[in-house]
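Pair request: fold both.
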Amino acid sequence: MSKLTVSCLLVLCICGSVITIDAASLFCRKPNQEWTECGSACPRTCDQLEDRLCIQQCIRGCRCNRGYILNNHGECVLPKYC
């Protein structure tokens, strides 16, 4: 490969990484949330406090930090605030 080709590929890889990081920080703006590439298809919520049977499937997106669950407004809260 030529130096130009290698340089272009390097720039594309770096830009792709930056775009992915920026997208994650843009989508997960609510408190107590984080981006995950492979989260549960059945997250715990205030309406569903107990674990339940759930299909094993990776879901990309925001999820609540450990110890927090979704309330009816889509916010991650401690279970005692449900």
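--- second member of the pair ---
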Amino acid sequence: MKKKKEKQSKIKSLRTRILVGFGAVVLLIMLSSLFNILSLNDINKSMQTIMEQEMKLLINDEKLLTDMNKRTSLIRGYMAYNDEAYRIQFNTETKESIKLENKALELSDAAELKKLIDKKVAWGRLTDEALEAYDNGDPKKAQDIMNTQAQVLENELEKGFSDLAAKREDNIQKFGDDIMRKGKIIELLSYVVTILVALLSALVAYLTSRSITRPINLVMNHMQTIAGGDLSVEPLPVTTEDETGQLAAAMNMMQDILKQTMHKISEDSETLTAHSEELNQAAFEVKSGSEQVATTMQELATGTETQANTASSLSIVMGNFTKKVRDTNKSGDQISKTSQKVLEMTTEGSRLMESSNQQMQKIDSIVQDAVEKMAILDNQTKEISNLVSIIQTVADQTNLLALNAAIEAARAGEHGRGFAVVADEVRKLAEQVAVSIADITGFVTTIQAESKKVSDSLQNGYTEVEEGTSQINTTGQTFNKISQSVTSMVNEIQSISGNLESIAANSEIMNGSIEEIAAVSQESAAGVEETSAASQQISSSMEEVAGNSEHLAALAEDLSQMVNQFKL
């Protein structure tokens, strides 16, 4: 029992207990929110890496390959038809190609990419040599350069850029798989963390309210029993050192003092009744035997002196009794003050509940903001899908133009052979672009699906936060009920204090009567010595004594009835 008491007495204040309980709830909620925020940041970083680096690199690689094939077709068209428009467009595409190369180097410093760009620069120099030979009137040399050295580099570049694009696609696929895996883990952990937070919060609220209401209910029931007049009930067990423990200890002290006071009042009441009966009998005998005063003077003087001493002793006893009643009343006031302090602590608990509710609303806003950001991310992926659709349309049109060019080349016969080669290159390029666009579309669709799952998971977390807010409101209502119980207890204590004040007032009246009897007894003793000259005066005094004795007996009866209301 002693170990249990030491364990429970570590928290010596209701304020500390309430702050610890709600601090634990708020800490759990903050940890849950921090986990969700960190998880979202991780997903956002992965998405940002895909959108700002890998996807741009993939698109840029495709553009570099397309630009090289297009420039090849323009050179061959220029050499086949000697059309200056092909040469002008080739120069324009060359400038655009330089921009694409610089942009690729800005996005990535990979050695493989630098090597391909160096080869592309070398291929560009070969095309310049071919154009120079053609301009100098040597088309055969120009064709040899384009069909041998330039063609070899072109094939290597096509394979290199294709392999690099495939690697980019693999990286995007890996990032997508990683995002899917993290999304599933976050969804599972969010459910688990939310359930744990809800369960632990409910447990903390239940234990905190139970540790406060249980001892208060015990004290209130104990006080109702005492107010009903039963002082024989066992004292309350004191297991804590907080305000409820102090209230129970003060209640036990008040019960003990009140029990001792009632015992003393009962004993003094019986003594007072016996003495009042003796005094009444003595007064009657004095009155009836006034003719024999001379012969019984000595006996009467002795009896009167004894009566005076008894009245004086009784006056002292009543003085002590009145003092104990006042002490008991002070203890009742102390209990009332302690109860007021408990009421203030309960009010503080209600205020803390309101603060927790406000904190939950802030967390609610944070989760809602995360849901809105996921919606923005979903819109951005839709914009990417629109851009991919535009590229698909351009690729289809390019393929159609290549088909028309091949038909026209076939009609031209031998003169359209070079143009047929250009059309075939354009058709291959369009097919490659179509395949790449199909892959990109698949990746974007997967990202959109996973973004939708993450958004749904955040929405579920938002719903759980709302349920946590509802549980905290329920706990606040429980504290309001506790406040009402404490208020009822204060009223009971004030009722007991009023009864004690009434007992003290009656004790003051009784004490005055006893002092008056003592004074009369002393007057009777003096009258005995003067009986031979004032027997009539003695008879009158005895009548007064008899009247006071009857009044004293009535007061003793009233006091006895008041004491009998309590079960000792």
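Observation on the second member. The radius of gyration is 54 Å.
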